[in-house]
Amino acid sequence: xxxxxxxxxxxxxxxxxxxxxxxxxxxxxxxxxxxxxxxxxxxxxxxxxxxxxxxxxxxxxxxxxxxxxxxxxxxxxxxxxxxxxxxxxxxxxxxxxxxxxxxxxxxxxxxxxxxxxxxxxxxxxxxxxxxxxxxxxxxxxxxxxxxxxxxxxxxxxxxxxxxxxxxxxxxxxxxxxxxxxxxxxxxxxxxxxxxxxxxxxxxxxxxxxxxxxxxxxxxxxxxxxxxxxxxxxxxxxxxxxxxxxxxxxxxxxxxxxxxxxxxxxxxxxxxxxxxxxxxxxxxxxxxxxxxxxxxxxxxxxxxxxxxxxxxxxxxxxxxxxxxxxxxxxxxxxxxxxxxxxxxxxxxxxxxxxxxxxxxxxxxxxxxxxxxxxxxxxxxxxxxxxxxxxxxxxxxxxxxxxxxxxxxxxxxxxxxxxxxxxxxxxxxxxxxxxxxxxxxxxxxxxxxxxx
Length: 450
Ligand code: GLU
Description:
By secondary structure, the chain is an alpha/beta fold. It folds into three domains: 1-58 and 427-450, Glutamate Dehydrogenase, chain A, domain 3 (Glutamate Dehydrogenase, Chain A, domain 3), CATH 1.10.285.10; 61-194, 3-Layer(aba) Sandwich (Rossmann fold); 213-365, Rossmann fold, CATH 3.40.50.720. Helices cover 47% and strands 15% of the residues. It contains 16 helices and twelve strands. The strands form two sheets. The chain has a seven-stranded mixed β-sheet with strand order 9-8-7-6-10-11-12, sandwiched between helices. The mean pLDDT is 97. The structure holds glutamic acid. Residues 94-96, 168, 170, 198, 350, 378-379, 382 line the site of glutamic acid.
């Protein structure tokens, strides 16, 4: 791939790669942001002063800890827990926790780095952080998940708090896990500090529409992006990868906008449903029964097929919304989608498209919404949950959804205007990276060297 990195920033990237050896996802995330900054420092050279960019690439604090717990057979298990407190220039660290066997410090660092700019784009007072553990919740009983969460929080509690760091969910961490984590936090601190975690259940400080927010937000963003070309979701055939929280509520919003969703997936394979995905059935299988996606095809019957091997991106569609995990959409997948006539791609997961895929979409003039802009609705709504908790209030679903729609439209317009201002109209990757960077950089500049 031809490098797009300004030569002034090469030593910065080299230092990041040297200092964070063996962390390819983090290198990938940093490279993409640095590639966007050449135009920024040409216009505003002060941002390259005082090692500002180098400081932004170095997390403020990285915490790694042992998580011992006892399984249902009475055996002691040991996992590794992480919290990377990346940047607190704009507010307390904010970002989810991921429980998945693939979690390591490089993954958490890439997610924390992305989160910093994403959170800046929301315009709300939140810094960036991310955490998690290499724990696999699949196949574990509720009691095992509870014991794991309690042990995890026993260490995490000393590092978080409403003015310090506010974790939430991500892959493998939903309402059940947040309940166990919040219960343990409350017990350890002897304080009902609801705003110290977000994504909580509605009975104990959670916000209506937080569950839906990431998927709804991504769909609002893509809707706005389609409108720039005089299109909308009405009648569009869509493919949404994944079948977790982000995918399910992306599908729900696409359907409400008049689109059809023809395929979704999980880590075991994908289903194609000629009649359009039956959302109630999908929710039942994934949210209630916690079963594999193959079960969807079994129960749905005629018109639905489960496919293992191959790629969900082989399914022809007008709009693709990768909503599973990082690097799930390769350069080859992008070429297939383009050949099949895709007109827009919106990233619901964090960094789901490889750099080669993004290049392919942009060279073909496909509308492309990068994750740090398109999926910011989840964390933005977490910041609204913090507001609700601070005011000891209880917001309606409509109030939150109206704010969410507004925020997503603002993020869209801000990215589009920034891209235009920096001479790359229609490039939402550059627009998001530059707009997010400038907010963080301005605040850090004001603080002096810290
Ligand atoms: N994990 C989500 C994200 O990637 C949400 C984080 C939050 O709500 O703090 O943005």
